[in-house]
Amino acid sequence: MKKKFKMENLDCANCAAKMEEGIKKIDGVEDVSISFMTQKMIIEADESKLENIMKEASKVVAKVDSECRIIL
I need a surface site. Which of 30, 42, 54, 70 has the fewest CB within 10 A? Predict the structure, then answer.
């Protein structure tokens, strides 16, 4: 399933790329795309694991930039 989320306080394209790298490693994630320009993340993942995936994705985002977050 493909789902779109808004990002808050995403400061740079380099940070977005690092976040994508980390989120792609999460079990159940098929693909992820984070746009610095639109402040949006599109994630393609296993629907049954989505809640857990989003918790892990939030941790990845916080590790890269402590001020940035995914609006769930």
Answer: 30
DSSP 8-state symbol, 9? S
* Interval 26-34 mean pLDDT: 98
Query: If 0-12 CB within 10 Å is exposed, 13-18 middle and 19+ buried, where does residue 61 land?
Result: buried
In angstroms, the CA 30 to CA 67 distance is: 26
37, burial (CB in 10 Å: exposed 0-12, middle 13-18, buried 19+): exposed
CA dist list (Å): 31 to 13, 41, 63, 66, 67 = 18, 11, 20, 23, 24
Mean pLDDT value of segment 30-46: 97
What are residue 8's DSSP bridge partners?
A: 69
Confidence band (pLDDT; 50, 70, 90) for 39? very high
